[in-house]
Amino acid sequence: MITKANYPDDIPESRIELLELIKEKLSEKKKERDILKIIILGGLDSGKTTLTAFLSKELLNLGYKVAILDCDVGQKSILPPATISLGILNEKFEELHNIKPYKSYFIGSTTPIQFFGEMIVGIKRLCDLAEELGVEVVIIDTTGLIFGSGFDLKRMKIELINPNIIVGLEKEGELKPLLDLFKNKYKIVKLKVYDYAKSFSREERRKIRLEKWREYFKDSRSYEIKITINLTGSKVFQGKEISEEEKYLMEALFKWKVFYGSKCEGKYTVVKRDLEEIPRKIDKNVLYYLEPEKFEDIIVGLIDERGFCIDIGILKEIDFENKVLKIISPIDEELLKDVKEIRIGRLKIVEDGDEYLLDRDYL
Ligand SMILES: Nc1ncnc2c1ncn2[C@@H]1O[C@H](COP(=O)(O)OP(=O)(O)OP(=O)(O)O)[C@@H](O)[C@H]1O
User: Fold this and answer.
1) What predicted TM-score, i.e. pTM, was given to this entire model?
2) Which atom of ligand 1 lies nearest, measured to the CA of 44?
3) How do residues 224-270 score in pLDDT, each as one tens digit?
4) Where are the transmembrane segments (predicted)?
5) Domain 13-213, what architecture?
6) Which residues of 332-341 are buried (b: 16+ CB within 10 A; e: fewer)?
7) Which of 156, 289, 320, 159 is nearest to 226 (CA)?
8) Which atom of ligand 1 has the smallest separation from the CA of 46?
9) Domain boundaries along the sequence of the chain
10) Which residue in 23, 160, 210, 225 has its CB near the most CB atoms, within 10 A?
């Protein structure tokens, strides 16, 4: 599989010093028995994942119980894509992409923009879980989004998880405004980006993601899941289901076949198909309508009762007439019984693995 980062051969002195500092902090912590949280920040291709691989392997070899919280939704090492994942390292260090997630949280996109809520809740829940499991040190790998709304996301993450060490990988002080916010509160370590760090173009990044999608779904199976399951991530399934009368009225009025409809605060949302070509004047703020095809090829999270993502799938169709969801997923059939909710994301994955980002209000 194509991956951007592995355990590095060349380790700059500054990284060794950081490791020494972490060891020191861990020996202080031994008495307190609580987890040491290290968050790694930096722009695109600044070496965050490479540093995560280095630190986690070294700490594992020293006998610590180590976890990686992979929040880099755009370029994840620990799959599935479109989630954030907690990986607990085994006795033997594997390459990051071979680590199986202990638990994941569904984001539903490969960019955090528009999904800050998911990112923040996910990071907190997975961090708490690491603590619950007795992990001694968790290394949090983040996306390279550090400007604009990415700046605020990083700030909020730090405020929420209270890290013990913030590591900033920078070229020319680009993290200063962010790190300055926390300079009196947390231990901050600024590192210079590795001189030979390779930059990847947008196209190369897209190709790597595509490869990961293909790889991840290569042994998928088709499943049919009863629509009675909790279905979230679309306004269609919020509010109260419309009555048969309301349905017939709309069908007669607009010459539609209505598959499903719901009503919330006086507003209707309806999945329909036109049966005749007639002029219709409908205020979409009062009656929002869509075709059933709008749900096709969208990424979904298969969620357990604790709200964690057991696996992901691609929604192929909602068959409203037979009340089933048709999905493809690499999930083990055995695990299907643990799925309590299907959460619809905002990413379309087409046959060749190509992805299209969708807006939050798409559904
Ligand atoms: N110490 C190092 N030794 C060798 N290569 C390195 C080192 N640090 C970074 N690199 C190389 O630089 C490139 C970018 O590093 P990496 O993927 O770790 O960055 P990142 O910040 O995690 O990227 P992203 O923006 O995708 O999150 C990779 O090809 C990696 O192998």
Assistant:
1) 0.94
2) 25
3) 999 888 999 999 999 999 999 999 999 999 999 999 999 999 999 99
4) none
5) 3-Layer(aba) Sandwich (3.40)
6) eeeeeeebeb
7) 320
8) 21
9) 13-213, 219-363
10) 225
